[in-house]
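From the pipeline queue, job 12 of 40. The input is one protein chain; the requested action is below.

Action: predict structure.
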Amino acid sequence: MTGLMMATCLGTMAQQKITGIYLTAADYVQNKMAYTETNGHLYKARLYALVPKDHILLTRGGEQTKLGKDRFFAVQLKDGKIFHMRGGESYELLNRNPQLLLFRRKLPASPKTYPEQPYRYYFSTGESNLQELTTQNVKQAFVARKDLPERLDAAFRDNDDLMAYDTFHHMYKLEWLIK
């Protein structure tokens, strides 16, 4: 019974109304969307959450468009959340910094063995591949910045601190250090 309810919930979440699609990382940073609302009609996207596929299916007014996941950077849902999809996984985008994009992925968990931190965090530098967000990976990604290793070590005690938000500058502290 519980499995049926879970499958039903995931199945209904699989088709979402979207505000648009960002074809490239540059489009995302510049907030330039494709497949947007036309004449008051939003696209609906079948995201295939239960059985991941290499494409999404866009539907609007009886028209269907099949779009490969490797042909776009991110999709923005009607609720404002933006997701980058790679390798059968969805990563929520957290910022719009062209030098450092931050992502999070919700970890699957059962009620009995719930993880301490329900998300795993990642980053990329522009169009590069996603890497797990650790101080060591950030140092390697920005090796040309000679002062960065010391600044990272001074600002962050451990990897969990990397996602600290600076309410004064309205950005993540890591973004502020890299800018």
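Job complete. The two ends are 51 Å apart (CA to CA).
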